[in-house]
């Protein structure tokens, strides 16, 4: 079945390349941030960093997402009061932190058309995920590879791969998030490879984000750590590096967490990811804490990205 899946993946991409399947080009540059495996790899924090970097450089970006975990069937703008069950968890985090227009929908080309009608000032779009969404043409492709790498190397369903590793040779850049850069460079050929880490060391109380404390304040204490992300172990290890005694509670990516998932037979603090916290805001309790993270790519990545966009302007 993986061989059949791989053949279909190659055929589909070739049909789009030959324009036998219809694709749409937006009237602004499109930056796609995605990965080759199923599950999160740090794409959303990187999309947020890219949007913030573009704003600081004089651009007016918007962010587009599929809205996984939500129930979106048409273009829709995400606001601060949007519900994760409707628009997905990651878009709410992006809307809260970026200050940019954030829109969701299954057909990203239609989404861009709708958001541009509402926000004509937008002059660049950052696509959070969508490397395989070939219906929308893209100007910059960024593939993120985290510490899990490519699993057993097999395509779905025998492995975690959406596309073969050779796909790295056709993207614009590769981001190594906890993965060996030399290994990725060997796979990527002449495509540039940049490193990235996720930083985050300040907790805020879920019932009042103004109340904050360093994660190290919990050093030596036992806490329940709850994560429904692509790689929950990454979150647990991050807390452990602060000296926290972690009691891990992993869930699948985009799991619809509820209060019962954070209810335990003790009064220990509970720490969750920012992505999970947006699903729990109506059930928040005083001993629940949130650990936001932010992407820190290599300094050269930002310059490289602006250079690529400058080339788009010249064309």
Q: How would you sum up this structure, described in words?
A:
With 315 residues, the protein is an alpha/beta fold. Helices cover 29% and strands 23% of the residues. The chain has nine helices and 15 strands. The strands form two sheets. A nine-stranded mixed sheet has the order 3-4-2-5-1-6-7-8-15, with helices on both faces. Strand 9 and strand 10 form a beta hairpin. Helix 2 packs parallel to helix 4 (89-98). The longest helix has 16 residues, at 2-17. The chain starts with a helix and ends with a helix. The mean pLDDT is 94.
Q: Can you give keywords for this protein?
A:
315 residues; 15 strands; alpha/beta; 6-stranded mixed β-sheet; single chain
């Amino acid at each position: 079945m993986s061989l059949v899946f791989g053949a279909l993946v190659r055929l589909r991409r070739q049909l789009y390349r030959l324009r036998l399947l219809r694709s749409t080009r937006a009237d602004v540059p499109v930056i796609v941030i995605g990965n080759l495996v199923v599950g999160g790899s740090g794409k959303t924090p990187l999309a947020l960093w890219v949007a913030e970097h573009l704003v600081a450089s004089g651009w007016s970006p918007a962010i587009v997402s599929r809205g996984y975990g939500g129930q979106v069937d048409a273009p829709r703008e995400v606001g601060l009061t949007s519900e994760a069950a409707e628009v997905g968890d990651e878009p709410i985090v992006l809307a809260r932190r970026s200050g940019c227009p954030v829109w969701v929908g299954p057909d990203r080309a239609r989404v861009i058309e709708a958001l541009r009608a509402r926000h004509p000032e937008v002059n660049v779009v950052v696509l959070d995920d969508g490397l395989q969404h070939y219906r929308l043409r893209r100007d910059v492709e960024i593939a993120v590879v985290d510490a899990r790498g490519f699993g057993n190397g097999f395509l779905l369903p025998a492995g975690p791969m959406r596309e073969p590793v050779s796909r790295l040779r056709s993207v614009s850049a590769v981001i190594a998030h906890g993965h060996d850069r030399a290994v990725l460079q060997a796979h990527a050929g002449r495509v540039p490879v940049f490193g990235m880490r996720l930083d985050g060391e300040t907790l805020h109380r879920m019932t009042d984000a103004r109340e904050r404390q360093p994660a190290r304040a919990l050093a030596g204490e036992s806490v329940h750590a709850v994560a429904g992300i692509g790689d929950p172990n990454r979150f647990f290890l991050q807390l452990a590096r602060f000296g926290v005694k972690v009691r891990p509670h992993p869930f699948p990516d985009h799991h619809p967490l509820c209060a019962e998932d954070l209810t335990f037979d003790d009064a220990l603090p509970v720490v969750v990811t920012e992505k999970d916290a947006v699903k729990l805001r109506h059930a928040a309790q005083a001993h629940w804490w949130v650990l936001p993270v932010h992407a820190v790519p290599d300094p050269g990545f930002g310059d490289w990205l602006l250079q690529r966009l400058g080339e788009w302007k010249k064309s």
